[in-house]
Design brief:
single chain, 821 residues, alpha+beta, TIM Barrel, Jelly Rolls, 4 domains, six-stranded antiparallel β-sheet, 17% helix
Length: 821
Amino acid sequence: MISLKTILPLFFMFSCVYATIVSHDGRAITIDGQRRVLLSGSIHYPRSTPEMWPDLIKKSKEGGLDAIETYVFWNAHEPAHRQYDFSGNLDLIRFLKTVRDEGLYAVLRIGPYVCAEWNYGGFPVWLHNMPGVEFRTANTAFMNEMQNFTTLIVDMAKQENLFASQGGPIILAQIENEYGNVIQSYGAAGKAYIDWCANMANSLDVGVPWIMCQQDDAPQPMLNTCNGFYCDNFEPNNPNTPKMWTENWTGWFKNWGSKDPYRTAEDLAFAVARFFQRGGTFQNYYMYHGGTNFGRTSGGPYITTTYDYNAPLDEFGQLNQPKYGHLKQLHDVLHSMEKTLTHGNITTVDFDNSVTATIYATEEGSSCFLGNANSSSDATINFQGTEYTVPAWSVTVLPDCKTEAYNTAKVNTQTSVMVKRPNGAEEEPSSLEWSWRPEIMDGAVLRGKGDSAMNQLFDQKNVANDESDYLWYMTKVHLKESDPVWSKNMTIRINSTAHVLHVFVNGEHIGSQWAKDGKYTYMFEQNVKYKPGVNQISLLSTTVGFANYGAFFETGAAGITGPVEIVGWNGDETVVKNLSGHKWSYKTGLDGFQDQLFSSETSSKWSEESVPFNRMMTWYKTTFKAPLGTEPVVVDLLGLGKGTAWINGNNIGRYWPSFLAGEDGCSAVCDYRGSYGSEKCQTNCGQPTQRWYHVPRSFLNSEGDNTLVLFEEIGGNPSLVNFQTVTVGSICANAYEKNTLELSCNGKPISAIKFASFGNPGGVCGSFEKGTCEGSNDAEAILAKECVGKEKCSIDVSADIFGAADCDGGFARKLAVEAVC
């Protein structure tokens, strides 16, 4: 018989076997006592679907990542006070277990303020409406709620043994987020608050380090980290804190009315290599997969439904080449240097003109970086007896301090040109048959009957509590021809912070207006033919995501806060009648939303006759067959105005294809050299900000009918709507000599080689041209034999295969290829 005295030590020994000890010193995060080079990428679980998570995380691992970083979204998980939702794509625990099952670490950024271009920065609007609350400062009501939610998340993770100290994947946790950017605005209360955050986090005893990003005065033992396009100059606030970069912005987000931002693979790789050259050992991409702002989750205001972010994995989860592959190669090289980067003595040699060499030396060997931060001039230097040419704005990596293994400006990965193609039954827009019904407005709201009434104008957050984008403001005004304001010409004037405003007087639509160019307050004024007697004024305020960033952002007004005035002219005199103090009735939402016309189960009647186009406040419905295959599906909503779309009852987000990007500011050629900003290398001038909307495969019935429902707010034409799939159309590459070129059509066979030349070819993808020198062997024939008919192929780029090519002028020989998928 075995005694309890014998069993207990065995039990505790067994239960602790799988625990991982995560700590740090001034050089690196340590895992089980070993300093690590850690490469991480942000994937936000609500911006994809549970069905997508395994593939996204698998591709992240194959891309050379060690960890997945995610925020935790308070307003999504606690939409009403003490009512929680962790279902579907909000299943945080399932997401973390998926990360664990792929063998990756996790970085859990609880916040719970996230920014993230997410509605209200992740704060629930009910929190704003609590008496006496002030956000992100030493305020008892706020701190109590923040602690409650943070503790909830920690306890959930602990219950599933998800912290590394329990054998789980979570190696780091974050409290607050980028507070250092705004702390000065909060004064002494801000400092007291950040100290409280640190103490509260420590009290939760998670067994892994806590981080605070953008917090130069982060209290110990919090680890302060850097966010930005470049963080090579960042220095931690404590000698025992490693140099960490929690957000390396792989691109940028989009606003309605803005152009498409684009950050090159060369510049992103330069930023990463430069960071590691200068002592960094932990780096996270924000975003590695951006995804989609489904439903009403986008913030801003005016942030688009797509959150692609020009990330290494595109919105649909496909490889964004060459960015994905170019970074993968860098990750492999950096991992091969882990020992020297985390243990080596560091020496820097300055060659002037922004050119430096950095040597990491250990007893076992050394690794080196050659950096050229000059934005225009290439550099040829003699380093340790060997001559190297380092292109402008690039870093060359020498794992053994001799052989060039990687240069950030020399992209040897294919570029995939993505196209959208019809695939299946719905190949033509005309194949969709529409039914419709109006949004009912000629009843209560246009007669001024709401759910509540007060003698003042309220911020939309206070009344609607974020239950809907829509809030009606309604009042009556009695006018006599003897009133001072009465005149032949009268207007209604509204000082508006409604993101979109629709104005109705006596049941007639007077006009609509919305903010443009980032000016969130505007004046609406239109002529109105009032009548003697009672006039009904009904104003519909629409929000497009609440502000998510800045000091006191929660106090910013949304909706109609006034004044609302009737303006008349009596001779040369302007007479104003202020209606702001009138009795205003309020009604949250629209009838069609409350009746769930978007639901597949709705029994509401729809008309198939005389389908109207360009009619505001109209619902449209159609059925369609799912596109064949497994490639990502998008719906083209070109021709529509503004509204919301649902697939089989799933809200795929707000649409606004009528909002065009500005005409100016796009670049035909993008020079990666020099510091990147969100307005550099923009594209899509004069086009709809977004016309394609992601339809996850899990939202579709692969067999049978699917339902698309649209609520059209400002008027549009659904006749052009159609479904397509996103696929690789062609692939291009510019691979330098002594590299292996890999080509892939993402599971489809390569059908033809359109161009191939070894030497010094010029041009860009889609318009390559032969240079002044070329290899003696037929490059097109060689590539055709090696690749056509195959899903992927690889070939060494060398004169042995393609023939000698004597190029004058010191050109580095390369192979340019364009293939058709």
